[in-house]
Amino acid sequence: MLRTTLTVSVAVGALLAPATAQARQDPQSVPRLTDRHGRVLTLRGWNVEDKTNRGDEALSAITERHFRDMRARGFNFARLLIFWDDLEPRPGQYSSAYLKKIDRVLGWAARNDVKVLIDAHQDVFGPAFGHRGVPAWATRTDGLPFTPHPDDWFAEYFEPAVQRAFTHLYEDPDLRRAQAEAWRVLAGHVAHHPAVIGYDLINEPMGELREGEDLPTAARRIERDQLTPMYNRLADAVRSVDRDAWLFVEPTPIVGEGVPTGLGRVDDQKVVYAPHFYNAAMEAGADYDPGAGWIEAYERAVVEYPKKYEVPVVVGEWGPLNHSLPNMGRFYRDAMASLGRYTSGWAGYVWCYGGGYCAVDDAGAFRTHKELTAEPYAASVAGTVASASYDSSAGVYRLAYRAARHGARVTELSLPPGTWRVTAPDATVLRTTAGRAWVLAAPGREVTVTVRSG
Fold first, then answer.
1. Among residues 232, 247, 241, 271, which one has the least CA distance to residue 198?
2. 93 to 67, 97, 98, 157, 340: CA distances (angstroms)
3. How many angstroms separate the CA atoms of 67 and 78, rounded?
4. How confident is residue 25, by pLDDT bands cut at 50, 70 and 90?
5. Nearest C-alpha neighbor of 88 from the set 205, 184, 227
6. Potential cystine with 372: which of 22, 77, 150, 332 (Cβ 3.0-4.6 Å)?
7. What are the distances in angstroms from CA 184 to CA 172, 189, 190, 199, 320?
8. Cα separations in angstroms, 51 against 83, 121, 129
9. Which residue pairs from 172-178 have beta carbons closer than 8 angstroms and sit at least 24 positions apart in sequence?
10. Does the pLDDT value for residue 20 go beyond 70?
């Protein structure tokens, strides 16, 4: 999660370009996520977390209610935050109790038909700096200073001690081995669990700026020279125990300001590009400015990597803190339309019950404008998608696809609460129940599915 002042946007604001029609991408220009049966997947859901509790109480803030309530509103995806400092509290000693707690959460997800992305989360590196993530025993600062910023925690990433800790993580052979082994242990434990779709190898990675570098230049260098080799190391570790799950790789958070990533190729057949979708000004409390071109600039920047390396996109976090400001309804509509053009899905931040970033209140009702994230969508398509879009003003979702000639034949739709009428003149609507619909098409048939509210 990126909560920061305008420090970042000032550094990269000149890179933002005015909105143009070029931002509207052909849905086929970015590859789509698929399952083992070849069906095209769409993942829509929320982050699920417990950043407060650790040790014996780790993950205790997460309950089955999280997954049951998400699924009831049409969401099929959860990004589950886990922490290396809980997994390996001492070098080489992995917590079996923590792994069992992860198992329990995954069991709830499976029971409610929610796919889980396991996210190796860090905020400001880890507990050595008062946060969560990389264990204190794996934190090396060379004695450089660290000053907390309680009113702007993201600014702590630019403290010398934190920046040097990232350099050591990327460059020290023993820390490289420790990070890879932690992933081997975790992935080996949950490999082939029916709820697990993939692994997010590190949350919002940062690094050390060099003298004379501006932030975009440093970000591209860190992504090219440090993150790309790290992702390849971690991919090798995961693949030694799990050949099937998707590997999600993130750029630095600077991509949120419309800066294309410097990441290189990750040598694996199942890679997902997983940027976050935050705007520095909005995170600092500003309202959405529809005329500023931020969403369009972000979209142009983000699609470069997946087009070049032919990988799908799933946005791992998004959603502003101040979601009830006057233009936020427009923001959610614009954001949902943009994400629908080029991603295979997203996880909003965050499914919790209360205030702040929480999607729902204490009673479980959507907070202001969060209900706009609940749309009809095709959770899995047995064929090749030609187009998919939702007109929120009319309450109409349309999906056009060519049915697969071999293999799976049933397409599944996910529907939010309400009354929905599903029609498919060139196929058969097998069944419609609360929150779901299934469509069967003949092999090779051109199919148009329409879902109408009311």
1. 247
2. 30, 12, 12, 28, 43
3. 8
4. very low
5. 184
6. 332
7. 18, 8, 10, 11, 34
8. 9, 10, 14
9. 172/140, 175/138, 175/140, 176/230, 176/233, 178/88, 178/91, 178/138
10. no
